[in-house]
Amino acid sequence: MPLVNIEQLVKHYPMGKTKFTALKGIDLSFKKGEFTGLIGPSGSGKTTLLNIIGALDTPSEGSVTVLDKKIEKLSHLEAAHLRCTHMGFIFQTYNLLPVYTVFENVEFPLLIMKMPEEQRKKMVLASLEWVGLMDKINSRPGQLSGGESQRVAVARAIVKQPDLVLADEPTANLDAANSYNILEMMVKLNRNLKTTFIFATHDEKVIGFLRRKIHLIDGRVAKDEPVSAGGK
Ligand SMILES: Nc1ncnc2c1ncn2[C@@H]1O[C@H](COP(=O)(O)OP(=O)(O)OP(=O)(O)O)[C@@H](O)[C@H]1O
Ligand SMILES: [Mg+2]
User: Fold this and answer.
1) Does 206 fall in a domain?
2) What is the predicted pLDDT for the residue at 230?
3) Which ligand has its closest atom nearest to the C-alpha of 19?
Protein backbone atom coordinates (compact mmCIF):
# COMPACT_ATOMS: atom_id res chain seq x y z
CA MET A 1 0.00 0.00 0.00
CA PRO A 2 1.47 3.40 -0.92
CA LEU A 3 1.78 6.06 1.78
CA VAL A 4 -0.45 8.40 -0.23
CA ASN A 5 -2.83 7.34 -2.97
CA ILE A 6 -4.82 9.85 -5.01
CA GLU A 7 -7.55 8.86 -7.43
CA GLN A 8 -9.47 11.15 -9.73
CA LEU A 9 -9.07 14.08 -7.38
CA VAL A 10 -11.04 17.18 -8.31
CA LYS A 11 -11.12 20.36 -6.22
CA HIS A 12 -13.61 23.16 -6.79
CA TYR A 13 -13.58 26.47 -4.98
CA PRO A 14 -16.81 28.46 -4.83
CA MET A 15 -16.52 31.77 -6.74
CA GLY A 16 -19.62 33.88 -6.38
CA LYS A 17 -22.40 32.00 -8.11
CA THR A 18 -20.03 29.75 -10.02
CA LYS A 19 -17.05 27.64 -9.02
CA PHE A 20 -13.41 27.57 -9.89
CA THR A 21 -11.80 24.19 -10.49
CA ALA A 22 -8.26 24.20 -9.11
CA LEU A 23 -7.57 20.45 -9.51
CA LYS A 24 -9.04 18.71 -12.55
CA GLY A 25 -8.58 14.97 -12.06
CA ILE A 26 -5.33 14.00 -10.37
CA ASP A 27 -4.10 10.41 -10.11
CA LEU A 28 -0.88 9.97 -8.16
CA SER A 29 0.68 7.82 -5.52
CA PHE A 30 3.61 8.35 -3.19
CA LYS A 31 5.66 5.64 -1.52
CA LYS A 32 7.34 5.78 1.87
CA GLY A 33 10.72 7.48 1.72
CA GLU A 34 10.08 9.63 -1.33
CA PHE A 35 11.65 13.07 -1.74
CA THR A 36 9.27 14.56 -4.25
CA GLY A 37 8.32 17.99 -5.47
CA LEU A 38 5.15 19.39 -6.97
CA ILE A 39 6.39 21.99 -9.41
CA GLY A 40 4.59 24.25 -11.83
CA PRO A 41 3.56 27.82 -12.45
CA SER A 42 1.77 30.00 -9.91
CA GLY A 43 -1.87 28.98 -9.68
CA SER A 44 -1.30 25.46 -11.05
CA GLY A 45 -2.67 23.85 -7.88
CA LYS A 46 0.45 22.90 -5.89
CA THR A 47 -0.69 24.30 -2.54
CA THR A 48 -4.23 23.03 -3.07
CA LEU A 49 -2.94 19.50 -3.63
CA LEU A 50 -0.51 19.66 -0.71
CA ASN A 51 -3.26 20.89 1.63
CA ILE A 52 -5.54 18.01 0.66
CA ILE A 53 -2.77 15.44 1.19
CA GLY A 54 -2.19 17.11 4.57
CA ALA A 55 -5.88 16.81 5.53
CA LEU A 56 -6.06 20.60 5.83
CA ASP A 57 -8.63 20.66 3.03
CA THR A 58 -10.98 18.09 1.49
CA PRO A 59 -11.50 16.78 -2.05
CA SER A 60 -14.61 17.87 -3.99
CA GLU A 61 -14.56 14.62 -5.97
CA GLY A 62 -12.36 11.54 -6.03
CA SER A 63 -10.44 9.90 -3.26
CA VAL A 64 -7.26 10.63 -1.31
CA THR A 65 -5.89 7.95 1.00
CA VAL A 66 -3.09 8.82 3.41
CA LEU A 67 -1.74 6.08 5.69
CA ASP A 68 -4.83 3.97 5.01
CA LYS A 69 -7.20 6.81 5.94
CA LYS A 70 -9.55 8.28 3.37
CA ILE A 71 -9.23 12.05 3.71
CA GLU A 72 -12.72 12.68 2.33
CA LYS A 73 -14.27 10.50 5.06
CA LEU A 74 -12.51 12.03 8.07
CA SER A 75 -14.25 14.22 10.63
CA HIS A 76 -12.43 17.41 11.69
CA LEU A 77 -11.23 15.63 14.79
CA GLU A 78 -9.97 12.60 12.88
CA ALA A 79 -8.19 14.84 10.38
CA ALA A 80 -6.54 16.73 13.24
CA HIS A 81 -5.48 13.45 14.81
CA LEU A 82 -3.95 12.23 11.53
CA ARG A 83 -2.02 15.49 11.12
CA CYS A 84 -0.93 15.56 14.72
CA THR A 85 0.36 11.99 14.88
CA HIS A 86 1.80 11.42 11.41
CA MET A 87 2.55 14.68 9.62
CA GLY A 88 4.84 17.66 9.86
CA PHE A 89 4.22 20.94 8.02
CA ILE A 90 6.67 23.58 6.85
CA PHE A 91 5.31 26.80 5.36
CA GLN A 92 6.88 29.67 3.49
CA THR A 93 6.18 32.08 6.33
CA TYR A 94 7.43 29.79 9.13
CA ASN A 95 4.21 30.18 11.20
CA LEU A 96 5.98 30.22 14.54
CA LEU A 97 4.15 31.32 17.67
CA PRO A 98 5.71 34.72 18.48
CA VAL A 99 5.22 34.70 22.26
CA TYR A 100 6.78 31.27 22.69
CA THR A 101 10.48 30.54 22.84
CA VAL A 102 12.23 28.38 20.26
CA PHE A 103 12.05 25.44 22.68
CA GLU A 104 8.32 25.96 23.28
CA ASN A 105 7.56 26.29 19.57
CA VAL A 106 9.21 22.94 18.86
CA GLU A 107 7.60 21.38 21.94
CA PHE A 108 4.11 22.41 20.85
CA PRO A 109 3.23 19.36 18.67
CA LEU A 110 4.36 17.04 21.47
CA LEU A 111 2.15 18.86 24.00
CA ILE A 112 -0.80 18.30 21.69
CA MET A 113 0.15 14.62 21.58
CA LYS A 114 0.19 14.66 25.40
CA MET A 115 3.69 13.24 25.52
CA PRO A 116 5.18 13.09 29.05
CA GLU A 117 7.50 15.97 29.96
CA GLU A 118 10.70 14.01 30.26
CA GLN A 119 10.37 12.42 26.83
CA ARG A 120 9.21 15.74 25.36
CA LYS A 121 12.31 17.52 26.55
CA LYS A 122 14.55 14.83 25.09
CA MET A 123 12.89 14.95 21.70
CA VAL A 124 12.82 18.75 21.50
CA LEU A 125 16.51 18.96 22.31
CA ALA A 126 17.37 16.23 19.80
CA SER A 127 15.40 18.06 17.14
CA LEU A 128 17.03 21.43 17.90
CA GLU A 129 20.41 19.76 17.86
CA TRP A 130 19.57 18.42 14.40
CA VAL A 131 18.94 21.87 13.00
CA GLY A 132 21.88 23.40 14.86
CA LEU A 133 19.93 25.77 17.10
CA MET A 134 20.94 24.69 20.59
CA ASP A 135 22.29 28.19 21.24
CA LYS A 136 18.87 29.80 20.51
CA ILE A 137 16.67 27.63 22.70
CA ASN A 138 15.41 30.54 24.79
CA SER A 139 15.13 33.10 21.97
CA ARG A 140 11.75 34.17 20.62
CA PRO A 141 10.92 34.16 16.90
CA GLY A 142 11.25 37.97 16.69
CA GLN A 143 14.91 37.65 17.62
CA LEU A 144 15.75 35.15 14.85
CA SER A 145 16.88 35.56 11.26
CA GLY A 146 14.79 34.08 8.44
CA GLY A 147 17.09 31.09 8.11
CA GLU A 148 16.99 30.43 11.84
CA SER A 149 13.19 30.78 11.89
CA GLN A 150 12.83 28.22 9.14
CA ARG A 151 15.18 25.89 10.99
CA VAL A 152 12.87 26.15 14.01
CA ALA A 153 9.96 25.32 11.71
CA VAL A 154 11.87 22.29 10.40
CA ALA A 155 12.63 21.21 13.98
CA ARG A 156 8.94 21.56 14.86
CA ALA A 157 7.91 19.57 11.77
CA ILE A 158 10.26 16.68 12.51
CA VAL A 159 10.23 16.58 16.31
CA LYS A 160 7.68 13.76 16.49
CA GLN A 161 9.47 11.88 13.67
CA PRO A 162 6.43 11.99 11.38
CA ASP A 163 5.86 9.65 8.43
CA LEU A 164 5.23 12.53 6.10
CA VAL A 165 6.55 16.10 5.91
CA LEU A 166 4.72 18.54 3.65
CA ALA A 167 6.67 21.67 2.77
CA ASP A 168 5.08 24.53 0.85
CA GLU A 169 7.76 26.81 -0.66
CA PRO A 170 10.02 26.27 2.35
CA THR A 171 12.90 28.28 0.88
CA ALA A 172 10.92 31.17 -0.60
CA ASN A 173 12.09 33.66 2.03
CA LEU A 174 15.65 32.38 2.40
CA ASP A 175 18.92 33.30 0.75
CA ALA A 176 20.91 30.67 -1.15
CA ALA A 177 23.16 29.65 1.77
CA ASN A 178 20.23 29.14 4.15
CA SER A 179 18.23 27.33 1.47
CA TYR A 180 21.01 24.80 0.89
CA ASN A 181 21.48 24.39 4.62
CA ILE A 182 17.77 23.58 5.12
CA LEU A 183 17.67 21.28 2.10
CA GLU A 184 20.71 19.32 3.17
CA MET A 185 19.09 18.84 6.56
CA MET A 186 15.96 17.47 4.94
CA VAL A 187 17.92 15.14 2.67
CA LYS A 188 19.70 13.77 5.73
CA LEU A 189 16.41 13.16 7.52
CA ASN A 190 15.00 11.51 4.44
CA ARG A 191 18.00 9.19 4.26
CA ASN A 192 18.39 8.44 7.96
CA LEU A 193 14.79 8.18 9.12
CA LYS A 194 13.10 7.41 5.77
CA THR A 195 10.85 10.41 6.35
CA THR A 196 8.78 11.08 3.25
CA PHE A 197 8.94 14.63 1.93
CA ILE A 198 6.56 16.29 -0.51
CA PHE A 199 7.39 19.85 -1.53
CA ALA A 200 5.51 22.48 -3.44
CA THR A 201 8.08 24.72 -5.02
CA HIS A 202 9.37 26.66 -7.96
CA ASP A 203 12.78 27.19 -6.42
CA GLU A 204 15.50 25.73 -8.67
CA LYS A 205 17.62 25.05 -5.59
CA VAL A 206 14.91 22.77 -4.19
CA ILE A 207 14.25 21.21 -7.58
CA GLY A 208 17.93 20.23 -7.80
CA PHE A 209 17.56 17.99 -4.72
CA LEU A 210 14.34 16.20 -5.72
CA ARG A 211 14.23 12.50 -6.53
CA ARG A 212 10.92 12.84 -8.35
CA LYS A 213 9.36 15.85 -10.02
CA ILE A 214 5.64 16.13 -10.58
CA HIS A 215 4.79 18.96 -12.93
CA LEU A 216 1.36 20.50 -12.44
CA ILE A 217 -0.12 22.71 -15.09
CA ASP A 218 -3.57 24.20 -14.74
CA GLY A 219 -4.76 21.64 -12.18
CA ARG A 220 -3.48 18.59 -14.03
CA VAL A 221 -0.36 16.42 -13.86
CA ALA A 222 1.55 17.36 -17.00
CA LYS A 223 4.62 15.22 -16.29
CA ASP A 224 5.71 12.80 -13.57
CA GLU A 225 9.45 12.46 -13.76
CA PRO A 226 11.78 10.29 -11.65
CA VAL A 227 15.27 11.70 -11.17
CA SER A 228 18.08 9.19 -11.63
CA ALA A 229 20.30 8.41 -8.65
CA GLY A 230 23.21 9.96 -10.50
CA GLY A 231 21.69 13.42 -9.89
CA LYS A 232 22.34 15.49 -6.80
N1 LIG B 1 -9.68 29.43 -1.14
C2 LIG B 1 -9.72 29.62 -2.47
N3 LIG B 1 -10.81 30.14 -3.09
C4 LIG B 1 -10.86 30.32 -4.41
N5 LIG B 1 -9.86 30.02 -5.26
C6 LIG B 1 -8.74 29.51 -4.72
C7 LIG B 1 -8.61 29.29 -3.30
N8 LIG B 1 -7.38 28.77 -3.08
C9 LIG B 1 -6.78 28.68 -4.28
N10 LIG B 1 -7.59 29.11 -5.27
C11 LIG B 1 -7.28 29.15 -6.70
O12 LIG B 1 -6.87 27.84 -7.09
C13 LIG B 1 -5.78 27.92 -8.01
C14 LIG B 1 -4.65 27.09 -7.47
O15 LIG B 1 -4.12 27.72 -6.32
P16 LIG B 1 -2.85 27.17 -5.53
O17 LIG B 1 -2.69 28.03 -4.35
O18 LIG B 1 -3.03 25.72 -5.32
O19 LIG B 1 -1.70 27.42 -6.60
P20 LIG B 1 -0.12 27.22 -6.46
O21 LIG B 1 0.29 26.30 -7.56
O22 LIG B 1 0.21 26.82 -5.07
O23 LIG B 1 0.43 28.67 -6.78
P24 LIG B 1 1.70 29.47 -6.15
O25 LIG B 1 2.91 28.94 -6.87
O26 LIG B 1 1.42 30.89 -6.50
O27 LIG B 1 1.73 29.23 -4.68
C28 LIG B 1 -5.45 29.39 -8.18
O29 LIG B 1 -6.01 29.86 -9.37
C30 LIG B 1 -6.11 30.05 -6.96
O31 LIG B 1 -6.53 31.35 -7.29
MG1 LIG C 1 1.25 27.72 -3.51
Assistant:
1) yes
2) 54
3) 1
Could you give the angle at the alpha carbon of 159 between the alpha carbons of 167 and 129, nearest 5°?
105
* Edge-to-edge strands, sheet with 69-70: 18-30, 4-15, 61-66, 69-70
Q: Is 19 close to ligand 1, i.e. is its CB under 6 Å away?
A: no
User: Which listed ligand is nearest to 45 at the C-alpha?
Assistant: 1
Evaluate: CB of 201 within 6 angstroms of ligand 1: no
Counting the structural domains of the chain, the total is 1
37 is a domain residue = yes
Q: Is residue 232 part of a domain?
A: no
Mean pLDDT of the region 102-116: 95
CATH of the domain at 97: 3.40.50.300
Q: Give every CB contact of residue 94 below 8 A, 6+ residues apart in sequence.
A: 141, 146, 149, 150, 152, 153, 173
Whether 55 is in a domain gets the answer yes
Tens-digit pLDDT profile for residues 141-184: 999 998 999 999 999 999 999 999 999 999 988 889 888 988 99
Confidence class of residue 131 from pLDDT cuts 50, 70 and 90?
confident
Among 161, 162, 160, 157, CA closest to 67: 162
At CA 214, angle to CA 95 and CA 82, rounded to 5? Answer: 45
pTM: 0.93
- Domain coverage including residue 221: 4-226
Q: Is 48 in the pocket of ligand 1 (CB under 6 A)?
A: yes
Contacts of 58 (CB under 8 A, 6+ apart): 52, 71, 72
